[in-house]
Amino acid sequence: MKVDIYIGRDNQRKTFVTLVNEYCCPVCPYVSVYLDTKLSGNSFNSRHSYAQQMKFALRYFNSNGIDLTQRARSGHFLNRAEIDAFYTACKFKAGNELSNVVSIHRYSDKSIQNAIHAGRVSEGKVKALTAKGRLYRLLDYLEFLYTSIHADHIVPDLVKQKYEFSLKHLKGKLRTLKDFNTECVAHGESLLPADKFLRLLEVIKPDSNDNPFKSSRLRNYLVVSLFIQTGIRKGALAKLKIGDCKFWGTFDEISIVKRPDDVADPRRFRPSQKTQPHRSFVPKELMQELKNYIDTVRCRYPASVDHEMIFVAEKDSRGTAGDPLSLSSIDKIFEKLSEAISFDVHPHLLRHKWNELFTDFAESGGMSIDQQDKLRKYVMGWSRDSQMGALYNEFKIFEQAKAYQQERQDSMTEGDA
């Protein structure tokens, strides 16, 4: 079973997501309708994530001989033990031997206890948010099945009771996931230490002797530099068009625009922009290098005239030279950089680093907390009531709290003296 993506042939060329078997046939018509009808109002990236959650649930239940559609038709749905077992599976990585994707029942209590002592269970755990997403996807899908199969009929009381029990027990399990992650996160360290960040800045330079790329050095340098300078998301950079760049006047802006199901985007897996439309400011020197790339490198590839995406594939191993740069290609750029600096670096980590550096700059300039919050929300494309600033800036918040505590403790010590 795998997640499959296909593009409609109408004028809108909307992207659809479904689950297919080894013969590329949909695994279940209900699943296909659920993903592309009930969830159609969500972005493609969200629907793709939901499809992954559905795959997890279906693989688990199939491996345990449970057909969710048949259960819904018969009105039995899921009992307490089945929900409890799935809840346990949701907390582990899909391939983990204790994840219950195969079947946790084949392990004895002693073998599980031994695994815990060996550290394998804790290492195989996923984040609470991941587990909650899997559990909620099952709950939402059961609601969809109940409505689709029984809503147009007089539902027997026993069927309704079993359905309501399944939902009630699932919701109870969802509430217990609030305190799932109990380990103390090391907020006292920057997610991207200064020495690794400086090393990244050095090796990504096109003329650096330590640059890990044999080709596409200018393009890769620009990709990484834009992440560092703007803090934008990977999808936003992949969707960036020439027309989004202000190559005139102040020569220092790019527009981050939402373009869901962009008919001009030929990619099968289209990137999407999650945050609100906004403008990001880019140093003139970097903007000039970006224009130079467009005028002297991008134009070499005939396929680039068919679209306006700035960054293009430069290797032609699959006949893709000149096509818009894919999200997987951006990931490969960072995989190679991670090896070069001996540290796992990725686009979202640079978004965290941008927020960390922004706080340093704002505080050194005497900017108020309220001003920082407003400016940060605009530049990041967050809504006015967003609380993401605290999440992305946990390291700086920890430093401030630590300094306050030390100052308070010092004052108490001096008072005792």
Distance between the termini: 70 Å
CATH-assigned fold name of the largest domain: hpI Integrase, Chain A
Strand content: under 5%
What are the secondary-structure elements, in order, as H or E? EEHHHHHHHHHHHEEHHHHHH
Rounded to an integer in angstroms, the radius of gyration calculated over CA atoms is 25 Å
Question: What's the shape?
Answer: globular
Q: Uncertain regions: pLDDT < 50 for 5+ in a row? A: 96-113, 115-122, 182-188
Strand order of the largest sheet: 1-2
Helix content: 40-55%
Biggest sheet descriptor: 2 strands, antiparallel
Task: Give the structural class.
Answer: mainly alpha
Structural features, described:
This protein is mainly α and 417 residues long. It folds into two domains: 2-91 and 126-179, no CATH class; 194-350, Intergrase catalytic core (hpI Integrase, Chain A), CATH 1.10.443.10. Helices cover 53% and strands 5% of the residues. It has helices spanning 29-38, 44-63, 68-74, 80-90, 109-118, 120-124, 128-150, 157-176, 194-203, 217-230, 234-238, 284-296, 327-341, 347-364, 369-380, 388-392, 394-416; strands at residues 2-7, 15-20, 253-256, 278-281. Strand 1 (2-7) and strand 2 (15-20) form a beta hairpin. It is globular, with a radius of gyration of 25 Å. The N and C termini lie far apart (70 Å).
